[in-house]
Amino acid sequence: MNMMNHIPLSRVDLNLLVLFHTVLEEGHVARAAGRLNLTPSAVSHSLGRLRYLLNDPLFLRTPKGVVPTARALELGDPVADILAHVGRVIASAAPFDAATSSRRFVIGAPDAIMASTVVPLSEHLSRKAPRVDISLMHLMPTRHARSGEHPWQASLQKLEKREIDVAMLPLRTVPARFAAQRLYDEDFVVAMRKGHVFARTPTLTAFCRAQHLLVSLDGDPRGFIDELLAKRGLQRRIALTVPTFMMALAHLSRSDLIAALPRRLVERHAARFALAVVELPLKRKSDLIQAVATKAAMLDAGTAWLVELIVETLGPGRRSEL
Length: 322
Description:
Elements: H1 14-26, H2 29-36, H3 40-54, E1 59-62, E2 65-68, H4 70-91, E3 104-109, H5 111-128, E4 133-138, H6 153-160, E5 166-170, E6 178-186, E7 188-193, H7 204-209, E8 211-215, H8 224-231, E9 237-242, H9 245-252, E10 259-262, H10 263-273, E11 275-279, E12 287-294, H11 301-314
Parallel strand pairs: 3-4, 3-5, 8-9
Antiparallel strand pairs: 1-2, 5-12, 6-12, 7-10, 7-11
């Protein structure tokens, strides 16, 4: 923020930085005004003051809202860091104490990760922070993402907008403005009811001949397994799609369908649903599941504690206890 070096700090209202950050997140003056409990005209007036201070238009109007200039994008992360530091200074008057805090945190994750981790995480949380509450938000990758578009971009945006505090996502790398900590590697196995004939001959040929269940929120009967099969000139029959993994487990237990499901999910619930498990007859690289938060959010002691708790509960070396 070199351009601000020559501006007397007495002329800079912290509220202007809050307003700038909100407009940048929303991409719309009226929506930003709603979040700030201001009128759109008040937001526009304050943006005028910022434009004068920073000698840049900052936001350009379009029929769908506003788009940031290059300078506004450049300022985005530094302003977010400034606001986070200020928040931390103010919050330091009442340090976060997990044993007595009654905060509510929002954790976002795909369905399979939530179903695999919510029980151990809740149990650990109740021991460490009995008054802290958790809300879980279902996150989904963007289907058929355009070239260059990150499939989890929408989830990362939810973190930046503070709609969620921490996300658990299958990501190997994250943009520089995020912090990520490794939780575990996830691969897929084939699940079915006990006594299923496929368990006796779990070959690729038998796999293709079987009738399959696929977890698909939008009902699309094609997943990554089908893409792997197609590369070999093979295909399978998806006899049923269901929208959630827990529904999949329940249906497998009383049908002749088989399904490729995350190993950790199946291991946690196999006994409950009387399921048999065999290795997937296809080679596939495992997914790295990580706890992700913005670096700005990690300056908050409560968020940093939550990430630490998640890693402590689910991270490397904890699998045998789950």
